[in-house]
Inverse folding.
């Protein structure tokens, strides 16, 4: 047994399994050639950010488009920053937007998949097995430097103008300790971390092929990075290399702030004998401000949290549809050609992703959302509105839920037509859109257009009540309104009125406008005949009579 093997046994006496055992336990996945295995690996340190949703969605799209697998891993090695029940908040965010991973964490203490555990704090034995092998091969060593010694080292590097700051080369005091010195310190209970013994050189560079940005050349890693902390918990960097290898990840989608870590990560893959993953570094989601762009801020921007979109009532499909317009430049053309297709049928490509920050535009999101809702039938709109209102507007929910069948008829008006209504972008706007169709929410409004007098309005309404029949189809109903025009001094022909406006009090649109105002309290609504059909004869008659009383009072 050589010195490295003795040191490994001294550091990891309880580790009996080998890396080969892990390779057999987590074999390569049986997937089609070219299939991508992706992961989203958040830390439970706060709410789900829109940038996180963006990256997670890209991960799922990449896997689905290639016939691969996506999974959710929780990286909880930084216990100082972790918040209570942070995992539940992340899972709830994904559920709200219909992001479904194939494997991974599914609840506070549940998961699915054959490559777990999917929570890093439950994978300590895996990291220790790999770490022991690195020590056996002379590629890792214990470092006994105190915080004070490390601070002094950094101060000295600042004074001497060292181009690279960190623990390496002549600055790595513990790198050259003899086996006896190491054993003596371990026996004395001196705290230590485990470090990588880097073989990088300052004058050497390497190139990797970023899936979005193309070839990137960077200097090699030369620092002896920490692998295991004093408590045996791995650093993010070491855990990431072990987890991605044994979970058989092929592509890592992450923010471009991680590009600087690629040299270290490549060095770790190489030292461990693992095949490196492929990286796709995503630009941050940006916001326009004062003529420039900045990254969306968790502290300054409410829309940075995905909960903002849930509370406002954006349909989950609309948010994902909008994100796809940011993810791939050809999505909108595809959507126009495939209006009814699933988002996951879109042929996602890394090559169509922007290398600059995607600009998040709430106005465009609302436009996308209007189109998404316009494609839904009334039953779906009713169900989704009630689902939202039950949580965020209980009083409105009570009104809707009092008669669900009626609510479905209300929200079916002008839907399923060649030109469906597009007056609602978010569920919180439905209340204002349909309030006049519910007696508890209806607010009468009798202010007439400038060219209409109260006497004329009353005359129109009385005449219309005389011919109103709730059983009339749309054509019969409108013909009756046209027939009322001439006796009342109006023309049923709008073009005729425009040719000689002085010859008439107005046209058929003015007549129907008075009826609309009396029944709905609004000058602009969806199809009036459909509204009358939903309201029913009794409610329509009563509202018209109330209007007549107002105009004649």
């Amino acid at each position: 047994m050589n010195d490295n093997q003795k040191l490994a046994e001294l550091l990891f006496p309880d580790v009996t399994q080998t890396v080969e055992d892990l390779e057999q336990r987590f074999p390569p996945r049986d997937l089609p050639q070219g299939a991508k295995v992706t992961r989203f690996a958040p830390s439970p340190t706060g709410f789900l950010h829109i940038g996180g949703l963006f990256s997670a969605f890209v991960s799922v799209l990449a896997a689905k488009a290639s016939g691969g697998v996506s999974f959710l891993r929780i990286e909880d090695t930084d216990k100082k920053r972790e918040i209570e029940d942070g995992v539940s908040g992340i899972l709830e965010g994904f559920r709200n937007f219909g992001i479904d991973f194939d494997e991974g964490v599914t609840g506070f203490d549940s998961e699915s998949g054959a490559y777990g555990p999917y929570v890093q704090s439950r994978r300590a034995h895996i990291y220790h097995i790999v770490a022991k092998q690195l020590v056996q091969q002379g590629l890792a060593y214990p470092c006994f430097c105190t915080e004070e010694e490390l601070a002094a080292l950094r101060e000295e590097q600042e004074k001497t103008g060292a181009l690279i700051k960190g623990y390496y080369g002549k600055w790595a005091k513990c790198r050259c300790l003899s086996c006896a010195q190491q054993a003596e310190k371990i026996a004395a209970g001196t705290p230590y971390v485990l470090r990588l013994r880097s073989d990088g050189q300052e004058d050497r560079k390497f190139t990797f092929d970023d899936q979005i940005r193309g070839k990137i050349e960077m200097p090699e890693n030369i620092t002896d990075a920490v692998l295991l902390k004093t408590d045996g918990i791995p650093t993010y960097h070491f855990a990431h290399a072990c987890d991605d290898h044994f979970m058989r990840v092929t592509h890592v989608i992450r923010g471009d702030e991680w590009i600087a870590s690629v040299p270290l990560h490549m060095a770790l893959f190489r030292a461990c004998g693992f095949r490196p993953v492929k990286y796709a570094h995503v630009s941050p989601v940006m916001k326009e401000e004062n003529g420039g762009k900045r990254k969306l801020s968790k502290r300054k921007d409410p829309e940075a949290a995905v909960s903002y979109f849930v509370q406002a009532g954006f349909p989950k499909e609309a948010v994902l549809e909008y994100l796809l317009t940011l993810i791939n430049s050809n999505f909108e053309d595809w959507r126009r050609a495939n209006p009814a297709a699933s988002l996951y049928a879109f042929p996602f490509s890394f090559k169509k992703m922007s290398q600059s920050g995607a600009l998040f535009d709430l106005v465009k999101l609302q436009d996308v959302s209007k189109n998404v809702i316009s494609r839904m039938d009334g039953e779906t709109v009713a169900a989704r509105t009630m689902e939202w209102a039950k949580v965020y507007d209980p009083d409105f929910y009570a009104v809707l839920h009092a008669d669900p069948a009626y609510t479905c008829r209300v929200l079916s008006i002008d839907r399923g037509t060649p030109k469906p209504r597009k007056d609602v972008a978010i569920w919180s706007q439905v209340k204002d859109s349909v309030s006049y169709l519910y007696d508890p929410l209806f607010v009468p409004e009798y202010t007439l257009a400038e060219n209409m007098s109260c006497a004329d309005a009353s005359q129109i309404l009385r005449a219309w009540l005389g011919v109103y029949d709730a059983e009339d189809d749309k054509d019969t109903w409108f013909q009756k309104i046209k027939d009322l025009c001439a006796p009342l001094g109006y023309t049923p022909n709008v073009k005729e009125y425009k040719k000689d406006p002085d010859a008439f009090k107005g046209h058929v649109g003015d007549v129907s406008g008075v009826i609309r105002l009396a029944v709905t309290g609004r000058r602009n609504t969806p199809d009036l005949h459909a509204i009358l059909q939903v309201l029913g004869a009794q409610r329509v008659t009563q509202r018209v009579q109330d209007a007549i009383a107002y105009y004649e009072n």
Residues 50-65 form the longest helix (16 residues). The CA atoms of residues 275 and 401 lie 57 Å apart. Residues 3-16+124-282 form a domain with the Rossmann fold fold (CATH 3.40.50.620).
